[in-house]
TrEMBL record:
This is Structural maintenance of chromosomes protein 3. The lineage of its organism: Eukaryota, Viridiplantae, Streptophyta, Embryophyta, Tracheophyta. It comes from Arabidopsis thaliana (Mouse-ear cress). Signal peptide: none annotated. The chain holds residues 1 to 178 of 1071 of the full protein. Belongs to the SMC family. SMC3 subfamily. It comes from the Eukaryota. It is found in: Chromosome; Nucleus.
Length: 178
Protein backbone atom coordinates (compact mmCIF):
# COMPACT_ATOMS: atom_id res chain seq x y z
CA UNK A 1 0.00 0.00 0.00
CA UNK A 2 1.27 3.46 -0.82
CA UNK A 3 -0.04 6.91 -1.58
CA UNK A 4 -0.61 7.01 -5.32
CA UNK A 5 -1.95 10.51 -5.66
CA UNK A 6 -2.98 13.55 -3.63
CA UNK A 7 -5.67 15.98 -4.77
CA UNK A 8 -6.00 19.29 -2.97
CA UNK A 9 -8.44 22.14 -3.40
CA UNK A 10 -8.85 25.31 -1.35
CA UNK A 11 -6.49 24.10 1.37
CA UNK A 12 -3.97 26.67 2.70
CA UNK A 13 -1.92 27.95 -0.24
CA UNK A 14 -3.69 25.60 -2.73
CA UNK A 15 -6.57 27.62 -4.14
CA UNK A 16 -7.32 25.84 -7.41
CA UNK A 17 -7.53 22.08 -7.53
CA UNK A 18 -4.12 20.45 -7.77
CA UNK A 19 -3.61 16.76 -8.44
CA UNK A 20 -0.15 15.30 -8.17
CA UNK A 21 1.32 13.03 -10.80
CA UNK A 22 1.15 9.38 -9.79
CA UNK A 23 3.69 8.66 -7.11
CA UNK A 24 6.09 5.77 -7.24
CA UNK A 25 5.91 3.08 -4.57
CA UNK A 26 9.59 3.74 -3.92
CA UNK A 27 11.00 7.17 -3.18
CA UNK A 28 9.39 10.43 -4.25
CA UNK A 29 10.76 13.93 -3.80
CA UNK A 30 8.81 17.11 -3.30
CA UNK A 31 10.82 20.12 -4.42
CA UNK A 32 9.94 23.77 -4.80
CA UNK A 33 11.00 27.32 -4.01
CA UNK A 34 10.61 28.76 -0.51
CA UNK A 35 6.97 29.41 0.26
CA UNK A 36 5.74 27.35 -2.68
CA UNK A 37 3.67 24.98 -0.52
CA UNK A 38 5.86 21.97 0.29
CA UNK A 39 5.08 22.03 4.01
CA UNK A 40 1.41 22.73 3.25
CA UNK A 41 1.39 19.65 1.05
CA UNK A 42 2.51 17.49 3.97
CA UNK A 43 0.04 19.28 6.26
CA UNK A 44 -2.64 18.33 3.75
CA UNK A 45 -1.67 14.66 4.02
CA UNK A 46 -1.67 14.80 7.80
CA UNK A 47 -5.00 16.64 7.71
CA UNK A 48 -6.52 13.45 6.29
CA UNK A 49 -4.46 10.81 8.05
CA UNK A 50 -3.64 11.94 11.53
CA UNK A 51 -5.73 13.27 14.33
CA UNK A 52 -3.71 16.43 14.85
CA UNK A 53 -6.39 18.51 13.14
CA UNK A 54 -9.36 17.45 15.25
CA UNK A 55 -11.89 19.54 17.15
CA UNK A 56 -11.22 22.48 14.87
CA UNK A 57 -12.10 25.86 16.24
CA UNK A 58 -13.27 28.68 14.03
CA UNK A 59 -9.80 30.21 13.77
CA UNK A 60 -8.29 26.81 12.89
CA UNK A 61 -10.75 26.48 10.01
CA UNK A 62 -9.89 29.93 8.77
CA UNK A 63 -6.20 29.07 8.81
CA UNK A 64 -6.83 25.91 6.77
CA UNK A 65 -9.09 27.53 4.17
CA UNK A 66 -7.29 29.33 1.38
CA UNK A 67 -7.31 33.08 1.67
CA UNK A 68 -6.01 35.39 -1.01
CA UNK A 69 -6.58 39.01 -2.01
CA UNK A 70 -9.05 39.50 0.87
CA UNK A 71 -11.14 36.58 -0.29
CA UNK A 72 -11.47 33.32 1.62
CA UNK A 73 -12.77 30.09 0.13
CA UNK A 74 -15.66 28.57 2.09
CA UNK A 75 -14.65 24.95 1.69
CA UNK A 76 -11.63 22.85 0.96
CA UNK A 77 -10.77 19.23 0.55
CA UNK A 78 -7.81 16.91 0.47
CA UNK A 79 -8.17 13.52 -1.14
CA UNK A 80 -5.60 10.76 -0.83
CA UNK A 81 -5.63 7.95 -3.36
CA UNK A 82 -4.06 4.78 -2.00
CA UNK A 83 -2.78 1.89 -4.02
CA UNK A 84 -4.33 -1.02 -2.13
CA UNK A 85 -3.22 -3.87 -4.39
CA UNK A 86 -1.72 -5.63 -1.35
CA UNK A 87 -5.09 -5.30 0.49
CA UNK A 88 -3.42 -3.69 3.43
CA UNK A 89 -6.67 -1.83 3.90
CA UNK A 90 -9.15 -4.60 4.68
CA UNK A 91 -11.26 -3.64 1.66
CA UNK A 92 -11.37 -5.71 -1.50
CA UNK A 93 -10.30 -2.90 -3.82
CA UNK A 94 -7.12 -2.14 -5.77
CA UNK A 95 -7.45 1.55 -5.03
CA UNK A 96 -9.20 3.53 -2.34
CA UNK A 97 -9.88 7.24 -2.04
CA UNK A 98 -10.08 8.92 1.31
CA UNK A 99 -11.23 12.51 1.29
CA UNK A 100 -11.62 14.99 4.10
CA UNK A 101 -13.50 18.20 3.53
CA UNK A 102 -13.46 21.29 5.69
CA UNK A 103 -15.84 24.22 5.67
CA UNK A 104 -16.40 27.19 7.97
CA UNK A 105 -18.61 25.13 10.27
CA UNK A 106 -17.97 21.43 9.77
CA UNK A 107 -15.65 18.85 8.33
CA UNK A 108 -16.39 15.43 6.91
CA UNK A 109 -14.75 12.26 5.66
CA UNK A 110 -15.59 10.29 2.53
CA UNK A 111 -14.39 6.86 1.51
CA UNK A 112 -14.74 6.32 -2.24
CA UNK A 113 -17.32 9.09 -2.31
CA UNK A 114 -19.37 7.70 0.58
CA UNK A 115 -19.72 9.66 3.78
CA UNK A 116 -18.11 7.91 6.76
CA UNK A 117 -17.58 8.90 10.36
CA UNK A 118 -14.30 9.96 11.87
CA UNK A 119 -14.36 6.84 14.07
CA UNK A 120 -14.66 4.64 10.99
CA UNK A 121 -11.75 6.45 9.33
CA UNK A 122 -9.54 6.04 12.36
CA UNK A 123 -10.36 2.32 12.63
CA UNK A 124 -9.73 1.82 8.93
CA UNK A 125 -6.40 3.63 9.11
CA UNK A 126 -5.34 1.81 12.21
CA UNK A 127 -6.12 -1.61 10.80
CA UNK A 128 -3.87 -0.71 7.86
CA UNK A 129 -1.07 0.09 10.30
CA UNK A 130 -1.38 3.86 10.56
CA UNK A 131 -0.79 5.01 14.06
CA UNK A 132 -3.05 7.71 15.46
CA UNK A 133 -1.12 8.97 18.38
CA UNK A 134 2.29 8.58 16.75
CA UNK A 135 1.99 9.31 13.04
CA UNK A 136 5.35 7.63 12.37
CA UNK A 137 4.76 7.74 8.62
CA UNK A 138 5.53 11.45 8.70
CA UNK A 139 8.97 11.66 10.20
CA UNK A 140 9.30 15.14 11.54
CA UNK A 141 12.38 16.87 12.81
CA UNK A 142 13.47 15.48 16.17
CA UNK A 143 11.37 12.33 15.76
CA UNK A 144 14.26 9.89 15.41
CA UNK A 145 15.74 11.12 18.69
CA UNK A 146 12.39 10.84 20.48
CA UNK A 147 11.90 7.25 19.20
CA UNK A 148 15.22 6.22 20.69
CA UNK A 149 14.36 7.89 23.99
CA UNK A 150 10.89 6.34 24.34
CA UNK A 151 10.09 4.12 27.30
CA UNK A 152 9.77 0.39 26.45
CA UNK A 153 6.03 0.43 27.13
CA UNK A 154 5.57 3.37 24.75
CA UNK A 155 7.57 1.58 22.07
CA UNK A 156 5.43 -1.56 22.59
CA UNK A 157 2.28 0.55 22.15
CA UNK A 158 3.70 1.97 18.95
CA UNK A 159 4.53 -1.51 17.64
CA UNK A 160 0.97 -2.64 18.44
CA UNK A 161 -0.37 0.29 16.49
CA UNK A 162 1.93 -0.32 13.54
CA UNK A 163 1.00 -4.01 13.58
CA UNK A 164 -2.65 -2.96 13.52
CA UNK A 165 -3.57 -4.97 16.61
CA UNK A 166 -4.33 -2.19 19.07
CA UNK A 167 -7.61 -1.52 17.33
CA UNK A 168 -8.74 -5.05 18.26
CA UNK A 169 -7.78 -4.55 21.89
CA UNK A 170 -9.87 -1.39 21.88
CA UNK A 171 -12.83 -3.11 20.24
CA UNK A 172 -12.56 -5.94 22.75
CA UNK A 173 -12.56 -3.45 25.61
CA UNK A 174 -15.58 -1.69 24.11
CA UNK A 175 -17.53 -4.92 23.62
CA UNK A 176 -16.81 -6.01 27.19
CA UNK A 177 -18.17 -2.72 28.42
CA UNK A 178 -21.56 -3.25 26.74
P1 LIG B 1 9.93 26.58 2.73
O1 LIG B 1 10.83 26.10 1.63
O2 LIG B 1 10.26 27.97 3.14
O3 LIG B 1 9.78 25.62 3.86
P2 LIG B 1 7.35 25.71 1.76
O4 LIG B 1 7.41 25.26 0.33
O5 LIG B 1 7.31 24.65 2.80
O6 LIG B 1 8.48 26.77 2.04
P3 LIG B 1 4.79 26.42 2.81
O7 LIG B 1 5.15 26.69 4.23
O8 LIG B 1 4.11 25.16 2.52
O9 LIG B 1 6.05 26.62 1.88
O10 LIG B 1 3.87 27.57 2.24
C1 LIG B 1 3.90 28.82 2.84
C2 LIG B 1 2.91 29.72 2.14
O11 LIG B 1 1.59 29.24 2.32
C3 LIG B 1 2.99 31.09 2.73
O12 LIG B 1 3.17 32.01 1.68
C4 LIG B 1 1.64 31.27 3.39
O13 LIG B 1 1.18 32.58 3.27
C5 LIG B 1 0.79 30.36 2.55
N1 LIG B 1 -0.44 29.99 3.27
C6 LIG B 1 -0.58 29.30 4.43
N2 LIG B 1 -1.86 29.21 4.79
C7 LIG B 1 -2.57 29.85 3.83
C8 LIG B 1 -3.95 30.13 3.63
N3 LIG B 1 -4.88 29.74 4.51
N4 LIG B 1 -4.31 30.82 2.54
C9 LIG B 1 -3.39 31.24 1.65
N5 LIG B 1 -2.08 31.03 1.78
C10 LIG B 1 -1.66 30.34 2.85
MG1 LIG C 1 8.50 24.25 4.47
Amino acid sequence: MFIKQVIIEGFKSYKEQVATEEFSNKVNCVVGANGSGKSNFFHAIRFVLSDIYQNLRSEDRHALLHEGAGHQVVSAFVEIVFDNSDNRFPVDKEEIRLRRTVGLKKDDYFLDGKHITKGEVMNLLESAGFSRANPYYVVQQGKIASLTLMKDIERLDLLKEIGGTRVYEERRRESLRI
